Each structure stands twice: as structure tokens, then as C-alpha cells.
Input
Amino acid sequence: MLKAGVPDNVIGPRDAPWLIVDAKYKNPLRESWGKEYFHNEDLYQAFTYAAALDAPAVLVYPRVDRDVDVAVGSTTCAVHINTIDLTGGDSFKLRLPQVATPAQRPVL
Output
């Protein structure tokens, strides 16, 4: 279990969650030297949650200029980055990653 910091939402049992959802209230992309990047501090935080709780994590941001739907990581530690339209349009849907049901989760 995490000693410092708590994700916004843990889906499933607290000791063996299926999914971690962490909401952010800023543009998911930042620009530096003419290139766009995801926020390192958000990714570090999400990877820490995913590794500590052994579950995939989703970073959810408001849609600013365009939709973002990206997965980063490896097969053992995944972070998904999604945006949602907060204006109430038709795209107010969060795209969640496929997660294993409790019966399918491997026992480590």
C-alpha cells in the first residue's frame, strides 16, 4: 500500500484494485522548445500508484484542444492518458483500459 499520496479513485478492493483513476485539472500537454510533452510529474505519480497497487492507472484530463487517448508503459505497469469533454457534449465518455476481472488477475 502507498505510504504517501492517495489516488483520486481506486476501483476494486483497496488491497487488490483493478484500476486507478487520477483526475487532473489542466491541459494534458505542455509545450517546450516547440514540442508537446505530457507532464512528467503526473506520469511519475501515476506510475508510482500503478506499481505500488499492482493495477493499471488512468490519468483523466479535461479536453482542451483535442482528444487524447494514449497508453504508456509496459505489460507490467501501464498508464493510460485520456481526456473528456467537460462542456456536456456527446463525447462525455471516459475511455477506460481493458482490465482483468478478479478471477483473471494473476496471483503474485
